[in-house]
Design goal:
The complex is a heterodimer of chains A (254) and B (290). With 254 residues, chain A is α/β, with parallel strands linked by helices. Chain A is built from ten helices and nine strands. In chain A, the strands form two sheets. In chain A, strands 5-6-7-3-8-9 form a six-stranded mixed β-sheet, with helices on both faces. Chain B starts with a helix and ends with a helix. In chain B, 83% of the residues lie in helices and 0% in strands. Chain B is an all-alpha fold and 290 residues long. Classes of the chains: A alpha/beta (254), B mainly alpha (290).
């Protein structure tokens, strides 16, 4: 019998189910990702994309199945700051009285002492992260005064400052300007070369073809999973989107 | 004579201080204001203003039961405060009734239970003073307990200041980096219940509700920085307490009501003239002159 070395997988989700008060949001979902892989998570609204993210971060508990992060439990991944989550712009309160610097510093909280006093290394990590997303001139700007793209970059900087090896990105390209889109795609290439594992949900089929090595099509459960070139076919997409053809969804070119 | 002494600002401030009950009232109200003002900035940002209302009313039966059993008031208040929140969550989850309705339903139920218990159990708890407070007639043991609980809450909130900010802002990130969100949730609720107990003994439930909501809202209009928001919230709560007590002393008005009115006027002032978020945007106005 072949033995699987789970250490090889950054993310290993096996037959996971999530239900909210008896309502099934996700069932029998599987996903395996290795270091340096970028995987697109594609599905309709309500197909369980956010639920999948929530299960991987431990924000909701799974009712069945098993999740291993670097071969360990989700709880130890939380302790080790292994996973960073970059929320959708709609998922956060943009009027919260907080500056770019403070948001990015939150990426370091997990490794600080109980008072969350930044050390020299934390300050440096935050500085570097903010520079990488090109927001150096907005250090003390309240997030309410930023554009959608700048806000997205702020949260990316938080993930960078966290030094996580797994990045979960919820709709990283929605509501951002061209400049931010270009910067995010450059960062993706850098992350890949650094050996980070990326799982991103998106509505944009062009982005899937452009960035993703793998694609996971879901509709409450996995419809198809594999190499983008093999799995991302019109038939599979049609099944994922409940019988609607990709021509109708994304125009004839796709 | 009275008018003359009123006209000099010095005696306007110092005269009331010659009375022991006034010194006590000023101290107690300031303490309650500091605690509630601190909490208020978190409740405003978390969208928990109604929850503050609910918890401060729901602690009432807890206080009565604790009195009957000879337990500390704070213990009974805590159990009923947290219990009401748990019940709100449970009903919301298991029925199709909307959250604000459930909150109203649960806290009025708890509060009614408190009133019924007060009328049944022989106690020295006076309903009027629980509702509207009696800052001018506070006993020494009340003073001691208020000081102790206030310090406890302020210390707890100060230690977990940043974690609570993160919890209000992005609980999912907090969870992802291994911060105990469950603990923070109940820490905030515990502090809320304790603030209700402190307020209930001295300034009354109605005033606690106002102090938990208004200072945070005022501060939210005045700043874009979280730390400043906390400071402004606490200061506006304390200042309005002092203004309210002095005015109630000189004009012979209901103390609790005067404090709340002072708070409301400060809020209205911010609402109209806050530099960036007021109706008349003063920042823009002055920028036009430069």
């Amino acid at each position: 019998m072949e033995t699987i070395n789970y250490q090889n997988f950054r993310i290993d989700a096996e037959n996971i189910c999530v239900d909210y008060n008896g309502k099934v949001a996700l069932y029998d979902a599987n996903l395996r990702l290795k270091p340096g892989q970028i995987c697109g998570l594609v599905g309709m609204n309500g197909a369980g994309k956010t639920t999948f993210f929530n299960a991987l971060t431990g924000f909701v508990s799974i009712s069945k199945g098993k999740i291993r992060i670097n071969g360990e439990s989700v709880r130890s991944a939380q302790k080790d700051q292994t996973i960073a989550y970059v929320p959708q712009n709609e998922g956060i309160d943009s009027q919260f009285p907080i500056s770019v610097w403070d948001v990015v510093m939150m990426g370091r909280y997990g490794s600080m002492n109980i008072f969350r006093c930044p050390r020299e290394s934390d300050v440096q990590a935050v500085k570097d992260a903010i520079e990488r997303v090109d927001l150096a001139e907005h250090l003390s700007t309240p997030i309410g005064n930023l554009s959608g793209g700048q806000r997205k970059r702020t949260f990316l900087a938080r993930a960078i400052a966290q030094r996580a090896s797994i990045l979960l990105l919820d709709e990283p390209f929605s509501g951002v300007d061209i400049r931010t889109e270009k910067l995010i795609s450059e960062l993706f290439i850098q992350f890949k070369n650094e050996g980070k594992t990326i799982l991103l949900s998106t509505h944009d089929m062009i982005h899937v073809r452009e960035f993703c090595d793998l694609v996971l099509l879901i509709n409450k459960t996995v419809v198809a999973y594999g190499e983008t070139s093999e799995v991302f076919t019109p038939e599979n997409i049609t099944t994922t989107f409940g019988g609607i053809s990709p021509d109708f969804l994304f125009g004839p070119e796709s | 004579m009275e008018l003359c002494s009123f006209l000099t600002l010095n005696s306007f401030i110092t005269d009331p201080l010659t009375h022991n009950f006034m010194r006590k009232a000023l101290l107690m109200s300031s303490l309650v204001a500091a605690v509630c003002g601190f909490l208020s900035s978190y409740l405003t940002l978390k969208g928990w203003a109604l929850m503050g209302d609910a918890v401060s009313h729901s602690v009432m039966p807890g206080v009565v039961v604790a009195y009957a059993l000879g337990l500390p008031f704070s213990l009974g208040a805590f159990i009923f405060g947290v219990g009401s929140v748990a019940l709100i969550g449970f009903i919301k989850q298991k029925s199709r009734v909307k959250e604000d309705t459930v909150i109203g339903l649960v806290f009025t139920g708890f509060f009614a239970l408190g009133i019924v218990l007060v009328s049944k159990i022989k106690s020295n708890i006076d309903l009027h003073s629980i509702l509207f407070g009696s800052p001018l007639g506070i006993s020494l043991s009340d003073v001691k307990q208020t000081i102790f609980i206030s310090l406890l809450v302020v210390i707890l909130l100060s230690i977990f200041r940043k974690d609570l900010m993160l919890y209000c802002f992005d609980p999912r990130h907090a969870k992802t980096v291994g911060i105990n969100v469950f603990f923070l949730h109940y820490l905030l609720l515990t502090c809320l219940s304790l603030a209700a107990v402190v307020g209930l003994q001295s300034v009354g439930i109605i005033l606690v509700v106002a102090m938990l909501i208004t200072p945070g809202a005022t501060a939210y209009l005045l700043t874009d920085k979280f730390d400043n928001m906390t400071v402004i919230s606490v200061l506006s709560a304390i200042i309005s307490s002092l203004i309210g007590i002095y005015i109630s002393f000189w004009f012979d008005l209901e103390t609790g009501g005067s404090i709340v009115l002072a708070q409301t006027f400060i809020f209205l002032f911010a609402f109209l003239f806050a530099p960036r978020y007021g109706i008349f945007k003063l920042k823009k106005f002055f920028a036009g002159y430069k």
